[in-house]
Amino acid sequence: MTSVPPRFHWFLPTGGDDEKLGASSHGVSIAGGYERDAAAADGHRDASLEYLTELARTVDELGFDAVLTPTGGHCEDAWLVTSALIPATRRLKFLVAFRPGAVAPVLAAQMVSTFHRLSGGRILLNVVVGGDDTEQRAFGDTLGKDERYARADQFLQIARNVGQGKPVHVDGPYYTVDRLQSSGFAGHPNVPLPDVYLGGSSDAAIGVAARQADVFLTWGEPPAAVGEKLARVRQEAAAVGRTIRGGIRLHVIARDTAAEAWQAAEELIADVDQDTIATRQKQLAAIGSEGQRRMLALHGGDRDNLVVGPNLWAGIGLIRGGAGTALVGSHDEIADRIDEYRSVGIEEFIFSGYPHIEEARHFGTGVLPRYRNN
Length: 374
Description:
By secondary structure, the protein is α/β, with parallel strands linked by helices. It has one domain (7-372): TIM Barrel (Alpha-Beta Barrel). Helix content is 40%, strand content 18%. The protein has 13 helices and 15 strands. The chain has helices spanning 49-62, 78-85, 105-119, 133-138, 145-163, 203-212, 223-239, 258-268, 274-285, 290-299, 331-343, 356-366, 369-372; strands spanning 7-11, 17-18, 44-45, 66-69, 93-98, 123-127, 168-171, 176-179, 196-199, 215-219, 245-255, 307-309, 312-313, 326-330, 346-352. An eight-stranded parallel beta barrel has the order 1-4-5-6-9-10-11-15, surrounded by eight helices. α3 (105-119) links the parallel β5 (93-98) and β6. α5 packs parallel to α6. The longest helix has 19 residues, at 145-163.
């Protein structure tokens, strides 16, 4: 197990929150999905500024390190939401997800610089290249997946050089920039890029992460698979003289007893019918993401095959795109699983749970304190 104290982050459901998973839940519109309707209002919570503020304050008070905001057509814009939450929080950092194809690298460096000053340095970056070609084209991005990763590589190098005040003279395949050495934006000192989080399971993703990321992110596969993937990333990073931390994105259902946790898991998907599962599995399989393919392969759309490892449950991935697995169990069991992931090199954990305020409290009072005095 790594001796580095783990970092724990939470998630901002900027596509809305729910007490039970259903057709209108956050992430269920990824790769097609369903339009929200009146019938979905029961137990659904809109991603209003009031609600997200309450969640951010709760997470801040519980002692989480940061909150991740997603990006894409299924949610609100991450930069605007997190900027609005700065004055409502004290120490919480914002792990802002964004797509390099949607913003120019010099502008991104300026946005980081502004956010850094407004928040007192409370910004982290989650670079998302996008796994769904159809959605990328809907945003005006016509590049294929491997080219999107190549563009992200060039994007991050330019933005990093700008943040360090270095001159940038680039006439590359994706960007042309001619910028003299600068003292920073708006007359302020330069602001280097904060930690960059980047995930993916394809060869292209692993290569860019090894060269450019500070934290490599993976979705919640069993520990052995996670350890194998992370070892490969670290080997490639070492080959270019870099080190990289391991991070994992998981849901969590933590209770005083295992029986309570598993009952909560079953209740979460109790209203999801087989037709919805079949439709979502087909939609998610079509997007061409290697990470999504690996999530789907864990359960194969089978409600009787959802326990894919000790305390590792794939029920959320029946209909939600992206992260589809959850740690389920007693507080002691969740801590054991966290330590198991730490033993294969994971140092940062990004958790979420439905509904996000209540689940943050379960984890924040039952599990999180175990790691704060170590």
